[in-house]
Amino acid sequence: MAFMFEKLDVYQKSVDFVDDVAALIEGFLRGYGFLVNQLNRAALSI
């Protein structure tokens, strides 16, 4: 059973955004772990 908010366009777009950010930061160099962590947390907070 899905929650009601999962049907909202804004929720679906935010999930797509998090997926896009995750795909983008996969290519970052290993030494940028702090930046990867911060970008990931920022995207999830949206």
What would you note in describing this structure?
- The chain has about 45 residues and is mainly α.
- It has one domain (about 5-45).
- Helices cover about 65% and strands about 0% of the residues.
- The protein has helices at about 10-25, 35-45.
- The mean pLDDT is about 85.
Q: End-to-end distance, in Å? A: 23 Å
Listing every helix as H and every strand as E from the N terminus to the C terminus, the arrangement reads HH
Kindly state the percentage of residues in helix. Answer: 55-70%
Measured by DSSP, the beta-strand proportion falls in: under 5%
Structural class call reads: mainly alpha
Low-confidence stretches: none
Count the beta strands.
0
The residue-averaged pLDDT reads 87
Enumerate how many helices there are, as a single number. 2
Please outline the major beta sheet: none
Based on CA atoms alone, the radius of gyration comes out at 13 Å
Number of domains: 1
Bulk shape: elongated
Quick synopsis:
The protein has helices spanning 9-25, 33-45.
Write the layout of secondary structure elements.
Blueprint: H1 9-25, H2 33-45
List keywords for this structure.
0% strand, mainly alpha, 46 residues
